[in-house]
Amino acid sequence: MSEPDRRRRVVVITGAGGALGAAISHRLAGEPETDLVLSDLAEPSLRATVDGLPEPSSVATAMADVGDFDQVRSVVELAVERYGHLDVAIANAGVLAPSGRIHNLATEDWERAFRTNVMGAVNLIRSAVPAMRQQAGGSIVLTASVSGLTAWSHAAPYCATKAAVIQLAKVAAVEYARDGIRVNCVCPGTFLSAIHEGLPAEALDAIASRHPLGLGSADDLVGAYSYLAGPDSRWTTGSALVVDGGYSAP
Amino acid sequence: MTGQIEIPETFPGPGDLGGKRVVLTGASRGLGEVLAHAFSRAGARVALVARTEPDLKGVASTLPGPSLVLAGDVTDEDFNEQVADATVAEWGGVDVWICNAGISPVVGGPRQTDASVWRRILEVNLTGSFLGARAASRVMDDGGRIIFTGSVLGERPRRGLAAYSASKAGLTGMAKGLALDLAPLGITVNVVAPGWFDSPLADAWKRHPELAASITGHTAQERWGSSADLAGAYQFLASDASAFITGSVVNVDGGYLLV
Known about the structure:
The structure holds two protein chains of two kinds. By secondary structure, chain A is an alpha/beta fold. Chain A has one domain (9-237): Rossmann fold. Helices cover 40% and strands 18% of the residues of chain A. The N and C termini of chain A lie far apart (57 Å). Chain B is of the alpha/beta class. Chain B has one domain (21-248): Rossmann fold (3-Layer(aba) Sandwich), CATH 3.40.50.720. Chain B has a seven-stranded parallel beta sheet, with helices on both faces. The chains are: A alpha/beta, B alpha/beta.
């Protein structure tokens, strides 16, 4: 067995099959000396992400339900077995709960949101930290949301879980600073994705009008992940980077 | 042994303002005029401060309780000290100093904002409040209350109001700093941050349906605030019930900052 090249960067991304996960994967795959381990719950969408990566890319894939700790740990183990170490972990898998006011939501709606959005991030931190401590360094990036900072009507589980993710990043940042591990989150505003397909133009205009820079796309978000994953952010930890086209400014 | 918490014989209520000696700047109109009435009706003695003496006399003549009329400019350091001295001379001290004077011209973007306009807004809203707090801290005893009028725009600005937003955000930082400085003297410093209130100043916004809708749509309660909604926070922070609150911001905004 050949000695893995220690100088390459190894990145794990969960939720890599969605619009944002695919865009992050594409961006990081194109960065120098980077190996990716991509994970998602749905095989077809993960396959689509891999097929869309620039050539040549170094990529491994693993199916995982982020709500299950053992499955997330397996993804990290795959990264360490395949590439020898882990530098960056991006907890990006998330679910939008059904839309409704709180009294109309069921216990299962809350459990589903907490299981994926909060425990998914917890499980990746729990899995990645031991590997990152081995090398006394690493960067963990969590996908939160501007809805963790502002209130969206009819979306209580989403808002509450994303607020929890922001606070989780802060606590983890404090806990693992001594190990050289940074933990930050990105708070996206609304960006165009599959859930907006089929919406009438007026509905899209209404969403766009609330973003001073207009409606964004997943590509508008990836720079923040690249920055937080890389060495330029080496003195940044516990931060919530808002990337929302100005949505939360006024 | 587990000690039992002490149950006091009486609890101070937020309305206990009888006899309080209150300095109120920006008292000739708008929110200041509302506060003058609210405090006077609650039994406080109110020293009314603003630039225009006839306007202040007009307000004073409608108050049910004792008042002083002190006309001058809050950006003038000596004037603030004179307000403190005049209030002490009349009533023997100052219990509450509300730095409420402020200006909010809509000026546009940075290229439309002359440096002189920027400086004037900061001078009145921020430096004027500092000079008031500075004078207050000289004459206040243990239990003194300094209250700044902030704004939700300090946290969530709107276009064309950068100087105003900066001045109001600055008040929050200043209140926390002064709260630390003045805690050993037993003086508290807090901010009330109003949201959007129905007043003559709001008429320009209400005339444009889109602007008006953008404000009510940003307010969880989906309405403008009324005059009666505002005074309670000031009265609470002025009362003995708030003795252990300092360096805080109380938002009175119908949920504007939530959305």
